[in-house]
TrEMBL record:
Reaction(s) catalysed by this chain's protein: Exonucleolytic cleavage in either 5'- to 3'- or 3'- to 5'-direction to yield nucleoside 5'-phosphates
PANTHER family with a match to the protein in the record: EXODEOXYRIBONUCLEASE 7 SMALL SUBUNIT
Family to which this protein belongs: Belongs to the XseB family.
Lineage: Bacteria, Bacillati, Bacillota, Bacilli, Lactobacillales
Entry GO terms, CC: cytosol; exodeoxyribonuclease VII complex
Keywords: Cytoplasm, Exonuclease, Hydrolase, Nuclease
Biological source species: Enterococcus caccae ATCC BAA-1240
Domain of life: Bacteria
Catalytic class of the enzyme: hydrolase
Protein's name according to its UniProt entry: Exodeoxyribonuclease 7 small subunit
Keyword Nucleus: no
GO MF, one example: exodeoxyribonuclease VII activity
Assembly mode: Heterooligomer composed of large and small subunits.
EC number: 3.1.11.6
Length: 79
């Protein structure tokens, strides 16, 4: 059997799939082996979503200076 190339999912697709796994597991009618596999898939999806959110946060905290250079946005301590 040929190995399929992994297609990267969007954040939204991963989140929907993760929610479906959680719902299936919460019902409690999943056989143990299937539950373990689903749990492992869920952990991978969770990590992918977390990584995507961290990248987005880093991108959003950058601002452009007057010289069109990127600078890290720093929150004032009063907030």
């Amino acid at each position: 059997m040929a190995k399929e190339k992994a297609v990267e999912k969007t954040f939204e697709e991963s989140l929907i799939e993760l929610e479906e796994i959680v719902q299936r597991l919460e019902r409690g009618d999943v056989p143990l082996e299937e539950a373990l596999t689903a749990f492992q898939e869920g952990m991978v999806l969770s990590k992918q979503c977390q990584d995507t959110l961290e990248k987005a946060e880093k991108t959003l905290t950058k601002v452009m200076t007057e010289n069109n250079e990127e600078a890290i946005f720093e929150e004032s301590e009063g907030n």
